[in-house]
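#onboarding

Welcome to the new folks! Below is a worked example of what a typical request in this channel looks like: someone posts a single protein sequence, and someone else replies with the predicted structure as tokens. Don't worry about understanding the tokens yet, we'll cover that in week two.

Example request:
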Amino acid sequence: MRTRRKLWERAVYTVLVRCRTCDRRTGQKRLFYNYFSRDTRCPCCGGAVLERRVKADRVDRQLRNPFRLAQRLLGGTLFHCEFCRVQFYDLRGMAGVEAIAKIGIF
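Example response:
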């Protein structure tokens, strides 16, 4: 069941839910926290299921912002998210199969 967020929780979480049986609260973190993770995540959907690309695809859109441009110039790898069909450059490596299985698809 959804619960009200406190002021500081609004900056961190997009939604908070509370379990009816154990009364534990969990939330969905905002997407900008993906920039601080160890592994590459999709900047649009937060998904960890990505594939590496050698060159950009003309059909799927590519994120073009100063942060991604800097990562491209520093030698970042081109990644493609299969769910939201977006391409982006990132310096971090992909999560391993065990890490993806542990966190699920997203």
